[in-house]
Amino acid sequence: MLKTNEDKLIKIAVIGEVSQPMLMPLGYNIGADGVARTVPGVGGITYNKRVGDPCVDLAADHVEPGVSMRKGDDPGHRSNAALNFLACVGNTAMVVSGDAKGKKGVVTGMHGGVEHVLVDFSEAVMEKMCIGDKIQIRAYGMGLELSDFPRVKVMNCDPGLLSKWKIKAVAGERLEVPVAKIVPAKVMGSGLGSVTCHKGDYDIQMFDEDTVKEFGLESLRFGDFVAITDADHTYGRIYKKGAVSVGIVVHSASDEAGHGPGVTTLLASPDGVLVPRIDPGANLADILGLRKKPAKKKSAPKK
Fold first, then answer.
1. What is the DSSP string of 112-141?
2. Which string of b and e fits 20-34 if b means at least 16 CB within 10 Å?
3. How far apart are CA 254 and CA 207, in angstroms?
4. Residue 156 burial (CB < 10 Å; 0-12/13-18/19+)?
5. Residue 184 host element (H or E)
6. In this predicted model, what pLDDT tens digit does every residue of 15-51 receive, in sequence order?
7. How far apart are CA 99 and CA 76, in angstroms?
8. CB atoms closer than 10 angstroms to residue 293
9. What CATH code is carried by the domain that includes residue 224?
10. How do residues 95-128 score in pLDDT, each as one tens digit?
């Protein structure tokens, strides 16, 4: 078990509402190839995409899995900023109004720009939910530290998720972190230069086919943990050789220049303390058991 300062953390309630989906005024997104497309985008209740599902090759642009929420109509308002900063991946969320009142979900990430917090609920719960329903989050994780690894910055991460992630110390005072994919900093786009990684995300560009194939990015899933090499997110997003930052995929791919699947940061190290280890099961849905596996069919009795 990794030693943390969990006993010093504050658990606090934040609330928001299920957001209305958003589109450009004319409905079109102009891709990096110059083609205008009309497809679903951010916000709302996405009934058929959850963490664990593919986030690439969809008729969509920046689609957010599960339920998207924010506080009020102004994404830059202080109350919505508090929701985005305080909520952490793995936090418990509860519906507190409407037909799904009392049902629980799990925070899966934050989407910058639109400033949404994303929450996973089961399909049955989402069927009962409506735009405008209120969701309250037990925000827990801001200020989390690894006591024996001061050079690793932890952010946006519930202590319970950290304990289930199977991160382990290895020789040389390093941390081996299971990730589904390793991504080079050279393909990272929108979000670069942000002054903080305690909210929002950072997009993986998918426009170079050779790089996509080399790193297996065509099979990215919502909820995948990914390591970004030569990227330091300790105090904002910068390019730095030898640094490693690890995050979670929060929204779908995009045809817009500079955009792609978004990654919310969870861990950052400026000097290579983090050692990524490829694990196909390094996905939030698998680690937290968010998706029920179909029951095995019983074989017919032999005559």
1. TTTTEEEEE--HHHHHH--TT-EEEEEEE-
2. eeeeeeeeebebeee
3. 10
4. buried
5. strand 181-184
6. 999 999 998 777 888 999 999 999 999 999 999 999 9
7. 29
8. 6
9. 2.102.30.10
10. 999 999 999 999 999 999 999 999 999 999 999 9
CA proximity to 107, closest of 15, 9, 21: 15
Helix, strand, coil % (nearest 5) of the chain? 15, 35, 50
The residue range of the domain holding 37 is 6-140
Please check whether residue 268 is in contact with residue 245, taking contact to mean a CB–CB distance below 8 angstroms: yes
Q: Give CA–CA dist 174/212, Å, rounded.
A: 28
Residue type, 16: G
Task: Answer yes or no: do 83 and 194 share one domain.
Answer: no
Structure tokens at 277: 């280890």
Q: Is the pTM of this model over 0.85?
A: yes
Interatomic CA distance for residues 16 and 100, integer angstroms:
15
CA distances from 36 to 61, 82, 97, 150, 190 (A): 12, 35, 38, 47, 20
- What's the total number of domains in the chain? 2
DSSP reduced 3-state for 290 = coil
Q: Are 172 and 108 found together in one domain?
A: no
DSSP state of 71: S
Check: CB of residue 120 under 8 Å from CB of residue 135.
no
